[in-house]
Design goal:
- The protein is mostly beta strands.
- It has a domain at 4-73 and 89-118.
- The protein has helices spanning 4-7, 14-17, 117-120, 156-159, and strands spanning 29-35, 45-51, 55-60, 64-65, 76-81, 87-88, 95-101, 104-113, 123-128, 131-136, 144-145.
- Strands 1, 2, 3, 4, 7, 8 and 11 form a seven-stranded antiparallel sheet that branches. Strands 6-5-9-10 form a four-stranded antiparallel sheet, with no helix packed on it.
- The longest helix has 4 residues, at 4-7.
- The protein is globular, with a radius of gyration of 15 Å.
């Protein structure tokens, strides 16, 4: 994973830098939830979002000064789990972007899953340098944002929070 990190460095809009997952071009975010997953010096924030065509886990890595070499990324793996304990397959390799703002850059890694994950996922598991972080997606979220719209399928844990 470390070898692809610098190779996929791209600049994107300031909305990603601000700490919110950027939807696919032309696609609205149906649901966005801030996750409590953090690892000091390795993951500064995490988000779960549902769109019509994909579901996504976004991990924001710590800021670093613009113009300096990007710090080596930690070893990270992400799984979404179903209620039977099986993992939901990602639909592509993790997508890495770095966003510039003022004198800083923020690396972000997006893990993309099929839209059925909105219905099937009950937990997200993140492994960071051998440490496992787990968060239930069925518990009442601390922070949920919705851009409206009526998703084709949303898991029962989200039905009460979508505006």
């Amino acid at each position: 994973m470390k070898s692809f990190f610098p190779a996929l460095l791209l600049l994107v809009s300031q909305s990603v830098f601000a700490g919110t997952p950027a939807p696919a071009p032309g696609e609205a975010v149906i649901l966005q939830r801030t996750l409590a997953l953090k690892a000091a010096g390795k993951i500064s924030s995490a988000y779960w979002s549902v769109q019509h065509s994909v579901c996504m886990v976004q991990l924001d890595l710590p800021l670093f000064p613009k113009g300096e070499q990007m710090p080596e990324a930690p070893s990270i793996q992400v799984w979404l789990l179903k209620s039977d304990g099986t993992a939901i397959a990602k639909i592509n390799k993790p997508h890495v972007v770095a966003v510039e703002k003022d004198a800083w850059e923020r690396p972000t890694i997006d893990y993309v899953f099929a839209p059925t994950a909105a219905e099937d996922a009950v937990a997200v598991v993140v492994q960071v340098d051998g440490e496992f972080l787990v968060e239930s997606l069925t518990a009442e979220p601390e922070h949920v944002e919705s851009s409206g719209g009526d998703p084709p399928r949303i898991a029962p844990q989200f039905r009460g929070v979508i505006k």
